[in-house]
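Section: Multi-chain targets

For targets with more than one molecule, the full set of components is provided together so that the structure can be written out for the assembly as a whole rather than chain by chain. Components appear in the order listed by the source. The example entry contains two components.
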Amino acid sequence: MMIPPGRYPVPERGLDFDLCEGLAVSRDPVCYLVTGDNGFGKTTFLEKVVIAALQKEGRPFLYLGQDIRTQLYTLRALLSVRGTAVSGVDDTRLIEMWITQGGPADVFLLDEYDKYLADFGRLFQHCDAFMRTYFIVSHLDPAHIRPDPGKFRLRRLHFELKNLDGAVKNIRIRQEDPWPR
Amino acid sequence: MAVSDIKELLDAYDGQYLILDYNHLFVSGSLREEVWLLRRADEPALVSEILEAARAFGIREASAEKGFDTYSGGQQAILGCLLAMALIRAGGRSGVRLLLSNVMDSISGKNRRRLRSLFADMAASHGLRLFIPRDGGLRELELP
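Its structure, encoded as tokens over all components, is:
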């Protein structure tokens, strides 16, 4: 599937996105590193545009949000109810167990995962056989979140303020290559 | 880095550190309410001071009554830091040790540099010290 270029207004959040280039979400492995200043709508874009498009297409995905603490409590309870022993399991292992039980998802959205758990290598390795598209929001040094460049096309998705229209922020989303260093 | 458990942080550091945890930044719904609860008084001048500082971080939409849940995660982290600094100044406190848990890494590089500069000013004027959880203990952050 492809999220086409164009305008994506989200008036309830005071944001209007201008996606300059289409976003491929296909079987071809790609990793989008989502960057930009605070309040430019990175999370909103993932939730209101990308996830909405995935749901419309019936495309299975996994999403780890910014407020991971609450989500981890939920995952622990969910796995426990399913009969999986989670007592004493560390957070990274818990996420791996959730991914394994999560079904056939091949799209993974990670919103500031690295501020909690830095071990992207372990995550990429765990998902290597089935994950094809990553959206990774981060404010930290991207060097440590680089997936296998021989396998994944690496693109930076950068959010910048185009202008203000009253209370609405017009945000331009540019794709950049190569991966920032 | 790790997902900090607020109960563990409080058990270990409450009473010695002012703790600001990304997943529990505020106790109320808006800046006006937060100041009211923490200062036990309506203090519009203090709220205005925080709002003015927030605008320098590009948070133009900030207002006294705007719900915290309508800001982005990074904006909330910035507001939490600005609030903490304003409260320290208003209370005339010195030597406060501020423990930031998953806060600075929610903030863009540009805003992080701006915030560290404000923290450095507070270190000079009020003896503020910054700490982050690291490797099962705490690490003090050097300020420019």
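Strands of chain A lie at 2-3, 6-10, 15-19, 23-24, 30-36, 61-64, 107-111, 133-137, 153-165, 168-176.
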